[in-house]
Amino acid sequence: MAEAPPEVTCQGLARTYGAGPDAVEAVRPLTLTFAAGQTTALVGPSGCGKSTLLRMIAGLEEPSAGSVGIGGQPPLAVRRRGGLSVAFQEAALLPWRTVEGNVALALRLARRPADPAAVAGLIRLVGLEGFERRRPAELSGGMRQRAAIARCLVTAPGLLLLDEPFGSVDELTRLRLNLDLPRLWQERGTTTILVTHSVSEAVLLSDRVLVLSPRPAAVVADIPVRLPRPRRAAMVRETRFLDLVDEIAAGLSEGGAAADRPLAAQ
Amino acid sequence: MSGRLLVGLLLLLLWEMAARTLAGTHLLAGPVDVAGWLFQHRGLVGRALAVTAGEAALGLLLGTLAAVLLAALAVLAPRRVAAVISLLMLFLFCLPLVATGPLLRVLWGPGLGPQVTLAALAVTFTSYLALLVGLRAAPPVWLDLVRSYGRGRLSELWHVRARGALPYVMAGLQIAAPAAFLGALVGEFTGAERGLGLLVIRALRELDAPATWGLATVAAGVTVAAHAAIAAVGRRLQAEPPLILAAAPGRLEGPLPVLAALALGLFLWAGAMEAAGLSPFFAKRPWDVWAFLFTDPEAMAHRAELALALAQTLRVAVPGYLAGLLAGAGLAALVILAPRAEAAVLPVAVALRAIPIVTTAPLLVLALGRGPAGTVTIVAVMIFFPTLVACLQGMRQTPRAVLDLFESHAAGRGARLLHAQLPAMLPAFFASARMAVPAAILAATTAEWLATGTGLGALMAVTASTSAYGMLWSATLVIALAACLAWGALGLLERAVLSRTAAEQLA
Fold first, then answer.
1. Is the CB of residue B98 less than 8 Å from the CB of residue B457?
2. Contact, A118 vs A193, CB < 8 A?
3. How high is the pLDDT of residue B499?
4. Is A110 an interface residue toward B (CB < 8 Å)?
5. Interface check A70 vs B, CB under 8 A
6. Which residue among B139, B149, B163 places its CB closest to the CB of A110?
7. Residue A103 domain-assigned?
8. Most buried residue among A143, A233, A242, B300 by CB atoms closer than 10 A?
9. Shortest CA distance to B310 belongs to which of B485, B154, B135, B74?
10. Is A105 part of any domain?
11. Do B144 and A86 count as a contact with CB atoms less than 8 A apart?
């Protein structure tokens, strides 16, 4: 049973590592709302704290302050019933399990009954038909990411958290995955939060882009993406696409410049 | 394959020639005599081997089960509790088999008890350590995956860590199987009715060279075969052993875990003795040992006797230990300079590493005599092979990119060895040096027991046979504590060195 897509709220969410003079502030107190059924991309320079923000939303990392609500519930409750899935930077497939076994693992972890038909269906949808019995070592990087996405979707989660899931594949494969896979969750209206450092990926996949400043993460621009769906490869050459990319890039460099200024001047 | 066969034949030929040339001055038996003796006594040796192998297998099973339970507990428990478990396991591992053997014989009485217990004790720590490293080696992202479905540590252990640890389990078993055989043999030395150990003791007493060499050949063959069989199973399971097994010891975070382990250890010791209702005549309690060493009217004499024996043992154990380490690391460095030699040396060293001390000690005693030189050599040989293997495997860990960098500057082999391969070897070298501490003490005390008649090994053997249990328990405790301290000191040195050369290795 698919979960209804939830609204996600962050109230004063912050993360600081260490204490005293050595403390490192990774995420400044943030108050944000991610609309139900929308795809929101978090973009920012490397190490700005966007993955930390995503991990706090998933409940994989404890915030130093603030709280997260997923459809009004804390992350742990949502995780326990398989209401959210995370796609990590690496595919994180267990090397001793086949593609099929890795996808089915999510159902076991979510305490759901085995569902071979759903597993086979998703493997087919992500384009891995014929590779069900293969182990991760026998797959290319792109195929592993497809298997990881199938694993994420097999529990039909209401919330999908994507932490640079296509960051480790080459540019061509990345474009193909960007065009093929999002349809699978966007058709279901899944609330999706995507972390990426690729501006064009953010525009291609999302309905809204939040531009984060260098560490500590703070939102420096909130840009709606009003491009029609489904998005196609040709779009990346259209003016409105390029304008959006330019606007986000400007936000990124302004955020960087703001962070480079001495604190007193900000 | 034909090359290896040729090397094997050449070795047999050299052995035969040495035996014939030195027959007048040394107790040596060549392969012809050995084969003749084995053929003549095949029924007896076969039955004895079956008994010992059965005890070793049972010990291996029980020891591995204990290791699995304790490692799972250590992974599920907070770090400090895990540290207490590890410390207690280390102490058990450092107990000298030479002393625990006779004690177990008294506690268990006749039968299989001591052999199986010693076999289990000999494998538990190495298997525990391998399992713990393996269970903790799961990449954080696998654990995140499990947590992202709201599952806890038990699910992590079941779905991810346990299967991920399989290569480490196989590597641990490769070391454990020969160790179990060694434990069973030592158990048999203490007065078993049957088994290979009994035949070894008899052959040694009668200075029967063909029998001693024949039995040593059988024991060595069995352990090498067990080692190879487990490696083959590992390959079948697609679980190639990882190269470095013993990770650097974690920081203890203060003296609390040590004190807790000490208190728990004393409690378990006294509790077990009391619960089993064992007579304080032979089953000494902590307070008996304390009285024997500190409050008894003769305490000072007891301490002096113990200190003298300890000094004698250290006089052979320390040089042997250092010589074994240096020779192992040195030969590894030489071999790596000549890559062709490496391919030839590594399989031989891996096989020889599996041969337990008890089978080689009598041979070296026969060949080198009963003086300190023989004991030092036994200790050095015991340390040499594991160190050689660990160092070779460690140097192979040098990242390809680093070697390419040296290549791109046309750097010589010496520079590459000094600046790239030796630093890459250090984690494996230190892990091996730590594991070698109890091994050195075991080798020294076994040699003293079987041959030289000095030091703690002899003291423990004499006190066991004269029922001087106060001294036996005290000697056992002192030597185990000394080994634990040496282990800890090496761990500190290791952390200090690796924090400069391989910080990523430190937990």
1. yes
2. no
3. 79
4. yes
5. no
6. B149
7. no
8. A143
9. B485
10. no
11. yes
